[in-house]
Amino acid sequence: MTIDFKGNHFPKSVILYAVFFYVRYGVSYRDLEEIMAERGVEIDHATLNRWVVKFSPLIAASAQVRKKPTAVSWRMDETYIKVRGKWTYLYRAVDRDGQTLDFMLSERRDTAAARRFFKRAVGTNGAPDRIVIDKSGANLAGLQSLNVILKFMGAGRIIGVVQSKYLNNIVEQDHRFIKRITRPMLGFKAFHSAAATLAGIEAAHMIRKGQLGQIRLSPFKQFAALAG
């Protein structure tokens, strides 16, 4: 997939550098504006925000397509992200080796949101053999609902469900990187911009974990390659 950068007043390399720096290192837009100025690029923080919101989801989608195969045993959990001063819920799943599977920001933490996330993750990665979740009744109900759909569609098998706080430590530990990057960003003002930015953070995290298999390239070059 090739991302279209036409119509922008700055070169593709400058845009990608700014977006990568923001989603990988956790700075405010004011800080990023200053960093870019130090490199001879005068750009206001509002434009930097538009770049991140526009291009991060496209790069994350490319990362999902290009990532290496993942294991068939998953770990799923959600963490909290503040948007407009209120808590929202970032659903995340990794495999048994800690490789990122999928993620979804939701304004609610309920059965419908859990079902939507599981359907999305399975649609992207295929159905796993089992999913480890916590003791959340909403997550259990969402997964059971997905199993009903799989059975109705004649998928041949259903997904095994394991509820264990201890076994979910790997995804809870993985949340920490995401929270460490979002903390200096001083909060999100809108849900759509939060979801877009988090997609870029997740893509950068996948690169950090070596999921694109391009270990000979620097993290930035791997990120830029996702734009085509």
UniProtKB/TrEMBL annotation:
<protein>
    <submittedName>
        <fullName>IS6 family transposase</fullName>
    </submittedName>
</protein>
<dbReference type="InterPro" id="IPR052183">
    <property type="entry name" value="IS_Transposase"/>
</dbReference>
<dbReference type="InterPro" id="IPR001584">
    <property type="entry name" value="Integrase_cat-core"/>
</dbReference>
<feature type="domain" description="Integrase catalytic">
    <location>
        <begin position="65"/>
        <end position="227"/>
    </location>
</feature>
<dbReference type="Pfam" id="PF13610">
    <property type="entry name" value="DDE_Tnp_IS240"/>
</dbReference>
<dbReference type="GO" id="GO:0015074">
    <property type="term" value="P:DNA integration"/>
</dbReference>
<dbReference type="InterPro" id="IPR036397">
    <property type="entry name" value="RNaseH_sf"/>
</dbReference>
<keyword id="KW-0815">Transposition</keyword>
<dbReference type="GO" id="GO:0006310">
    <property type="term" value="P:DNA recombination"/>
</dbReference>
<dbReference type="InterPro" id="IPR047930">
    <property type="entry name" value="Transpos_IS6"/>
</dbReference>
<keyword id="KW-0233">DNA recombination</keyword>
<dbReference type="GO" id="GO:0032196">
    <property type="term" value="P:transposition"/>
</dbReference>
<dbReference type="InterPro" id="IPR032874">
    <property type="entry name" value="DDE_dom"/>
</dbReference>
<keyword id="KW-0238">DNA-binding</keyword>
<dbReference type="InterPro" id="IPR012337">
    <property type="entry name" value="RNaseH-like_sf"/>
</dbReference>
<dbReference type="GO" id="GO:0003677">
    <property type="term" value="F:DNA binding"/>
</dbReference>
<comment type="function">
    <text>Involved in the transposition of the insertion sequence.</text>
</comment>
